[in-house]
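fyi for ur records
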Amino acid sequence: MKRVKMSFKSAAPVVFALAMSFGSVFPGVNAQASSAKETINLWMLNAASTPAIEQLAKEWNVLHPNIQVKVTAVTNDTNTYFAKVATAIASGAGPDIIYMSAADYQQYVSSGIAYPVDRWLDKNKSDYYPNVLKSVETNGHFYAFPKTLQLMVLYYNKAMFAQSHLQPPKTWSQMLSDAKKLTTKNRYGLQIETHEGGYQNFEWYPWVWMQGGNIISDNGKKVAVNQATANALQLERNIMQSGVAPRNLATGGFDLTSFGQNKVAMAISGTWAIPFLAQNYPKVKYGIVPYPVPKLGMKSSSDAGGWMWMINSRGKDPIAAGNVMNWMTNENPNRYTAWLKAEDNWPPRKSVVTAMKNFYQTGVNKVVTDQVLPVAGMEPEWNAGVVKAVGDAIQAAEFTNEPISQIMQKLKQACQNALNNG
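which gave:
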């Protein structure tokens, strides 16, 4: 996944562990920002929002000649990016501001790299969506500035639905029934992710959450697998065994190329596909709806992949770095505008949605703002063992005839082992 979307566990745990071992060579963090001229290094992925961040840095630099911000777009590959960040920290030359994924957040906090940002976020706590703040809070302290959200939704082809006299599905049974009616020898009715990994889990979690279930308890200490999990696994099996969804995807479920080419009638994917479809398949008329629910009257759910800005406690001046990000993200909501429009992402702050209402209250964006964002849960920050256990369970549900009860037993045990092993 080269495009900047939800990030999952970095492929550089060894490098990260090496970086942590150098903790003793770093002095304590500065108590106050320096008055001497200094450079704050901000590292990020090379993304659609990079020019907007660079422009904000230029504006800051004009206003603050003694504290200059240097933006470095390291790479567009997530794993390479985090490997370089960890290596730089190990050498004592890490960035002052780190572009951070939700999946990697916890290991940077537990290692002591993340600098608490309460002094800034506390001023505007009420403006942030509660789930967003929860995702950057550990032991009562905030350790990152939230940046943007990317939400999971169901895309549907309006022309195909009209031709078949169908309405967008609201329940699981309607979704499966519609998918069967829309499947032909040249077209699948529904596309879901079939490749094992963090993204497949990310796509699947809302089926569990909308039933009030979870995989791990909110405090992260207990396995919470229950009937909601079993139902979600059974749904995955029903979709694949009915023949309405492609078993082998050339890229991944996040890629809506097949949807744009009219080879798929419905697709579960994220809001990053909105600009993708506009740029590559502008003639395709489509709609967006929340994930269908098990039964009418139940509340839907979604998964919000969140990126954030983390302050490096081992950087040259964490206070100055925090002041920079506070200015960019936590003060004037209008400073979000350029990068949000570039990525077609959703802001973590209510005031930004209001300030950009012409953008977020138009077309499919209005559906996301009004119906999906309010029910979205944040990307879980569980360890790699839990992620693998969930992935194995989904794969077994999709591609084997193993009883769901046995898959559940294995999932529970694997999750417990993962928690025991930290």
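Strands lie at 38-44, 67-73, 97-101, 137-138, 141-142, 145-157, 266-270, 286-289, 302-311, 376-378. thats all i got for now
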